[in-house]
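Researcher: Going back to the complex we discussed earlier. I've cleaned up the inputs and rechecked each line, so this should be the final set. Can you rerun the prediction on the complete assembly and write out the structure?
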Amino acid sequence: MEKKKYSVFDIILAIGLGILCVTCVLPFVHLLAVSFSSSSAVAAGKVGFIPVEFTAASYEYVISGGRFLRAMAISVERVILGTSLNIVLMVLTAYPLAKADLPGRGFLSGFFVVTMLISGGMIPTYLLVSGLGLKDTIWSLILPGALPVYNMIILMNFIRGLPHELEEAAWVDGASPFQTLIHVILPLLGPSLATVGLFSIVGHWNDWFAGMIYMSEPLNYPLQTYLQTLLVDFEQLLQSDSSANIMEILSKMNARTGRAAQLFLGALPIMCVYPFLQRYFTKGLTLGSVKG
Amino acid sequence: MKKNKKQGAASLWQYYAMLVPGVILTFIFSYIPLYGIIIAFEKYNVGMGFSSPWAGLENFRYLFSQPTFTRTIWNTLFIAVWKLALGVIVPVTVAVLLNEMISDRLKRIYQTLIYIPNFLSWVIMAGVLMDILGSDGAINGILNALGLQSVNFLGSAKVFPWTMIFSDVWKGFGYGTVVYLAALTGIDVSLYESAKLDGATRWQQIKSITIPLLMPTIILMTVLSLGNVLNAGFDQIYNLYSPAVWETGDVIDTYVYRLGIQQAQYSVGAAVGLFKSVVSAILVVTSYVLADKLAGYRIL
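Model: Rerun complete. Updated structure for the full complex:
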């Protein structure tokens, strides 16, 4: 690349876009600063992007209360179970559908694709999950979305793009379709499985709605559902808290700092997988499109 | 391909065996609810489930006689159409501008920053927005410092839809920008070089090279988003609205939720759901046909 000269336009462009991009993260920096500031500094409106009167009282409260950690444990359980099930089902479904000459393939693909176009909607799904007795179990959060069709299609397109020679070599050696899938195809799926797997992880972690309608006991809420309740009732929750050292903690924190701390902790795992997400994201996009 | 010959038709059953779990789960959790829509034409009775007494079009008649429901259709269309329009214009503009940047490193840093919000849940985002948009929040602090009046972003019925539109575009524009940038990297650099030799200015290059070559992707993304005309964004609005802004901020999905699940009026809720599904399905099919015709995009 030749060295280019920077014009005034380039500098204005870089600064302008820089401001735009920074607005995407500043609110989170502010949130972090609020969570580590004292309640009096926050109430006085003194907190910008750096904590004022630094204190970790809000985090102490969150950890000591137990509710947050319990909700987080439920979310972790959901992410592990849900993502594993998603991946197994996506691979098992995508591999046969990637076989262009499988008799009945058109009908079977149609069977899955139709579900992307029309759905029963919120109410019939809710009634079905309740009717099956899944309410108040972790399965109500996992089974209704066990096979993500769009991601399965991304995977199917990827499998179709693999060279056929490897499979054919396995067949010559007498491998059955199951053996071929496990020993030949699966090891080649790395990047695309990472893409759809990360989508599953983020989807399960971020979902709050299923937890809200299927869990009747708030103690069983996954993290995002629990955080959702905080948006509305954290003030009351704090006032009704009767644990031993609450008075001392409350002298340094309030609903706003406590909420900020929990929101930040809820976003943290996503921030941790974000570098991987970013790497596979564009790849996933191109995988999903323009394959005839 | 002659793989079946080589492999022997005897093992063909294994492919169907692999499909069994996916087919069963999809049948239960997608097709049974589809059948369950029938309760939209029934008077739902908990003991009888999906085979409750027939009510014909009674639920729909009731629904469309409710001014609170017809209002949600307009609110939904207003919010969703603005989101769709800005959801194309903003990412295209940002992608074209980012593409003009000379420093590749800065470009990568900017890309990394703009699509962080895309991956965070609306619960987290709602918490952040409530904090910064509140009466004592950061944004009103800035407005006051500039000598402007405070704005009630979340509590005023006039402002609320715009708060939804702009915060959604803000959360989502990084995604679109990355898609358009990916399309832009495919453009042949020699086109720009020969344009420069001909003395074309940067603006002329954007107008006659970048935008035309980006057009297929723009059409594709627009058409694919048409299916969302009745999705104004449940996760976002539910977490930020309040009865004070129902007049302009209550949308079809929040209405279905309150009626169908909170008030247990299952049949009426399902009727709204059906109305929405039919309109969306028509739009989705139309948009896929259009995507195929206009941009040569096929999902299968």
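Model: Worth noting: Chain B has two domains: 13-56, 67-295.
Researcher: Good, that matches what I expected from the previous run.
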